Amino acid sequence: MAKFTGYACSVCGKEFGPDEITYTCPHDGGNLDIILDYDSLRKELSPDKIFSSDEFSIWRYLPLLPVKDPGYDGTPLRSVGWTPLYKSAALADELGISNLWVKDDGRNPTASFKDRASAVVIARAKEVNAEVVVTASTGNAGAALAGMAAAANHRAVIFAPKSAPPAKIAQLLVFGAQVYLVDGNYDQAFDLSIEAANAFDWYCRNTGYNPFTAEGKKTAAFEIWEQVIAKESLTKQLCVFISVGDGNIISGLHKGFKDLLALGWIDVMPRIFGVQSEGSSAIANAYESGTEEIEAVAATTLADSISVDMPRDGLRALRAATRTNGSYIKVPDHAILNAIARLGIEGIFAEPAAATAFAGVKKAVKTGLIKQDDPVLVLSTGSGLKDIKAAENSVQPAAVIEPNLAALKTALGK
Fold it and tell me: Hey, what CATH topology would domain 76-110+213-393 get?
């Protein structure tokens, strides 16, 4: 079955065959949606076939992905996805809502959501015989590509702004990637990576540029469907909160839910809420102005993973909220730090970008965007180990005492 039948431009709607194009629409530069053969999929697949799989990773959903099985059994590439889901009664009670789940994608092999996209891109790179895969990244996408490429014995080249957190740069190097730190911001690194891909015939993984990235990220929607919507037999519309930078994660989630709706496996589209830092809010600004024209900002936020001047998948990211009765929410950096600490009390260690989504839930409750009986899911996209400095700034420092009981009693106030 040829499940991948082509591409459609998200701007002009023009369709292309599977072999006609590689990255974006040649007419207007719009990002491409991958088209699946839903009629054939409906005939050959069912939820029960998916649910009965003994593959607990993104490859559980291989029939719904536009790539062939890449192999690489026994490597980290085969353990991406199927991340844990936590139901926190304490957080729900504190917020005044009935049901709250947190899905922790910091538990992926390289500790971020971006492994989903990189695993699918590596599978595609194998199909097109690409020897080198390149990307621009503030850290997580690069680490994900480097880790997945290492698992598949591919060469990876990463361009990252020199301001990226040291822990993320260390990951890139440890995984054996060829790393170039750009004396500029993420947007400049992005542009350079595309120039390099064109000049040296490298396969470009870039978020909001390569259409296969969203296909990897949509697997989180499939897991949410299976772990929450189907398992809990939800009758109310699920509200999904996700932090947004370039916009490719939220557009990938939307694509996954659209796939499920087209297959008839869900009855209603979840409401999708994008959360941005006030210091990097280009898409939220467009949402508030009621337009689809997204204008660049000068990004200044401690949440480096979502610090973007001009989102590369902004239009689809905006529509993920507007077309699902969701919303965009802005939160200040101090609220992001508070969210890191609050999630930590629940045993969830989130980096700033990941905690941004939870900060958005708090604001949504306060402003009435969601109601008490709305089921809510927060997608935490990366581990706090990615940015230890931010983690330290979110909590009080540990007390330093002399090594004796008297000093401990003093510290305890006894």
Answer: Rossmann fold (3.40.50)
